Automatic annotation (TrEMBL):
<feature type="domain" description="Chitin-binding type-4">
    <location>
        <begin position="28"/>
        <end position="194"/>
    </location>
</feature>
<dbReference type="Pfam" id="PF03067">
    <property type="entry name" value="LPMO_10"/>
</dbReference>
<dbReference type="GO" id="GO:0004497">
    <property type="term" value="F:monooxygenase activity"/>
</dbReference>
<keyword id="KW-0560">Oxidoreductase</keyword>
<keyword id="KW-0732">Signal</keyword>
<dbReference type="InterPro" id="IPR051024">
    <property type="entry name" value="GlcNAc_Chitin_IntDeg"/>
</dbReference>
<feature type="region of interest" description="Disordered">
    <location>
        <begin position="59"/>
        <end position="80"/>
    </location>
</feature>
<dbReference type="InterPro" id="IPR004302">
    <property type="entry name" value="Cellulose/chitin-bd_N"/>
</dbReference>
<protein>
    <submittedName>
        <fullName>Lytic polysaccharide monooxygenase</fullName>
    </submittedName>
</protein>
<keyword id="KW-0503">Monooxygenase</keyword>
<feature type="signal peptide">
    <location>
        <begin position="1"/>
        <end position="27"/>
    </location>
</feature>
<dbReference type="InterPro" id="IPR014756">
    <property type="entry name" value="Ig_E-set"/>
</dbReference>
Length: 196
């Protein structure tokens, strides 16, 4: 009888554990409008992406950008070496979303785990940016063109923000989106290549 009870308890424990997939604690969020590099990798539209193809939501790094946060050259991977493929400029060949300077655009995050949020911020590259080099702070306007404060609230699973894309840009550029978490030391980073 004791063996049957023990076997039942072990069986139930295994069943309960299987309800919570491995890695779910590391799931968080990414942008898919404009399509981020990690989203392109997850869709299979870009090859040789490494682990990010299975974890587009996991680009988490230290918060405090731009004064703190990931080092230059590692911004698209959030400073996370596991996802270094996102920092590889691929000779400027990342797919890009068509956008129009001075026009309104709806930016969208997909959140697989929601967190108390400080804010969402969006940065755009400047005239010094070259799409064939890893992204640095010198390549960005360090004043975000859109900041959406959350004051510690927890966002929905899908978050959209409407903004006017700055005028005076042309060619291939990049949007760096940063989701800053209120109750941890981290933020989530997403790089989206855009074509004006």
């Amino acid at each position: 009888m004791r063996k049957k009870i023990s076997a039942t308890i072990i069986g139930l424990s295994v069943a309960c554990i299987s309800l919570f997939p491995a890695g779910s604690a590391g799931s968080h969020g990414y942008t898919d409008a404009p399509t981020s590099r990690q989203a392109f990798c997850a869709q299979g539209a870009v090859e040789d992406c490494g682990e990010i193809q299975w974890e587009p939501q996991s680009v988490e790094g230290p918060k405090g950008f731009p004064s703190h946060g990931p080092a230059d050259g590692t911004l698209c991977a959030g400073g996370n070496s596991r996802f270094a493929e996102l920092d590889d400029p691929r000779g400027g060949a990342w797919p890009a979303t068509q956008v129009t300077a001075g026009r309104s655009y709806t930016f969208r995050w997909r959140l697989t785990a929601r967190h108390a949020t400080t804010d969402f911020r969006y940065y755009l590259t400047n005239d010094h940016y070259r799409p064939d080099r890893p992204l640095t702070r010198a390549d960005l306007d360090l004043q975000p063109f859109l900041t959406v404060p959350y004051g510690g609230r927890v966002p929905d699973a899908t978050v959209t923000h409407q903004a006017t894309i700055p005028a005076g840009r042309s060619g291939k550029q990049l949007v760096l989106a940063v989701w800053t978490i209120a109750d941890t030391g981290n933020a989530f980073y997403a790089c989206s290549d855009v074509q004006f």
